[in-house]
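Blackboard transcription, Thursday session:
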Amino acid sequence: MLAESIEMSTIVVLVKQVPDTNAKIAVQGGRVDLSSVKMEMSPYDGFAIETALRHKEATGGTVTALTVGAAGTEKILKDAKAMGVDDIVRVWDDSWNELDSNALQSILKQSIESLGATAVYCGKSAADTGAGSTGPGLAERLGWANASNIIGAEFGDSVTVSMPVEAGVAKITVPLPAVISCDKGDFKPRKANVKGIMMAKKAQVELMTATAPASTVIVAQHSMPAAKPAGKTFEGGSSASQVVQLLRDEANVL
Amino acid sequence: MTDMIVIAELTKGTVNPSSAELVSAAKAMGGDVTVVVPCTDASMADSVATYEGVSKVLAVKSDLFAGNDSSGWASALDSSIPNGTVLFLASARSKDVASRLAARRGLSVVQDVVSIEGNNLTSPIYSGKANQTVTVNGDAVISVRANVFSGVGTSSSNDVSVVDASGDVKTAVQDVMQRASARLDVSEANIIISGGRGMGSPANFSHLEAVADTIGAAVGASRAAVDTWEEIPHSMQVGQTGKTVNPNLYIAVGISGAIQHLAGMRSSKYIVAINKDADAPIFQHADYGIVATWEEALPVFQDALSNLLG
Ligand SMILES: Cc1cc2nc3c(=O)[nH]c(=O)nc-3n(C[C@H](O)[C@H](O)[C@H](O)COP(=O)(O)OP(=O)(O)OC[C@H]3O[C@@H](n4cnc5c(N)ncnc54)[C@H](O)[C@@H]3O)c2cc1C
Ligand SMILES: Nc1ncnc2c1ncn2[C@@H]1O[C@H](COP(=O)(O)O)[C@@H](O)[C@H]1O
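(Written on the board underneath:)
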């Protein structure tokens, strides 16, 4: 049969560990102190996993969740496994420290090439950086097609995604291989079931490494945002006219 | 000293005035500033030719810039602009193009910069709960938040050089399914008025639209409003799983101020809150708080605005 001669496709989903988005963030000695903060998978990565699993369910193949991170980041790989991914991979080298986007994306490119992936899903942006650089940057480095911030997808020989553009929501055909970054959209991340959680406990994390270029963007320090001066509060709806006056005279925004 | 290259921001086919802010940002890093205007017609560069303190203006012409393929944008820019440190506005599309240009050139990208001292760039992290300052060694690609730097003034006109660029397109738009409303998108607006569950019904958003029309604002929403009412689309949602906005003025009406909502709007320059509950957390972040129902406060607000701007 023809189908059997076609190689099974490997779908990779990128996941990153970040502080719980409800956590209070404190700075100690010029650095964010995360020692007592609960860490979790970055929220958009959950949408990326869901989209990757649906891709596999539609076309066959396997889903591999991959993170670039130190040993402490394996919990989110187990969480991904519990949701139903097939394989979990952590890429790291103990000489790495804070990776700039050039170093991170070089590492991701090498890892994805060595896994032989045909589709890569990631989050629209990570909850720590808020950058949204990884998906589009990785696509350029791989020379692959790409769609950013998708809110829906249909799967076949290519992936047809819906994504917001200036004029509305566009349907775009993305030929494979491709890197696709996921926004919160039509697909709700599935909850892990008991069987998934049991499987995840036993699952083996595969370790990989890569060569990283030296980082040229170096974190100098963290700081707390300047405290806003206390605002003015008024009672009653009639005060709204006073606020309009202040917006003009004091704030200069009207 | 590295050369500074500013990519003018295009909004709906014209140069966005915030491009002048990028020139100030580039000057804060030092070096000669070239402004690049991605365009379909070189006359689009006219408004940029008078920016003060610019040594060169380059109009890069390509039909690609009429479309949405940011990979095409990046390849067209990559082939036609010089080496150096490149600055974009931190809009959704430009951040995407910035990431790609950096990747093509083997550079790092620093997004959402809100302050610059020489080679030290500061951006918010953890949705604005902290700031991170990085030191950039050598060339990089940078996106700068709008409304942070004041724009440069104008002076006598610079000559505009024109280059034609082509780029490769990897994806094809099949169809734009859902037309965006004629309204301004929250991610483009200088003033935003957002409604929450406290609006009571989606029909009541018409009161927010009336204010928006008076002051040229975009209308946003909390997640509770988007999740509760089908009529309020996700594209209006501000917050952690919606859009991050940075306007001059953000007016929150019937919004409690949950941490995930704050994540998307706390960096707004001025915040006004209208809420009937004096203990609502939004008041701790508001420059001007009005403790009242929107039914009482909005008509007064609307009248005062109409009188002022009418
Ligand atoms: C992972 C995650 C992501 C999330 N992402 C987002 C996000 O992106 N954006 C977002 O907004 N939320 C987000 N949320 C939800 C957030 O936690 C809150 O539930 C939501 O912001 C509440 O919306 P609200 O303020 O409109 O509603 P409520 O919390 O119900 O507040 C309604 C407010 O209206 C006031 N009110 C009622 N009647 C009136 C009246 N007549 N006049 C004036 N005021 C009135 C009330 O006093 C109250 O303060 C997220 C939550 C999670 C867990
Ligand atoms: N260290 C990492 N390991 C794996 N994936 C990552 C890493 N950093 C970022 N990503 C992926 O890229 C997305 C966007 O991150 P960012 O570009 O930092 O906003 C995240 O949601 C992840 O899917």
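Lecturer's comment: The helical segments of chain A are 2-5, 43-59, 74-83, 101-115, 134-142, 194-202, 240-249.
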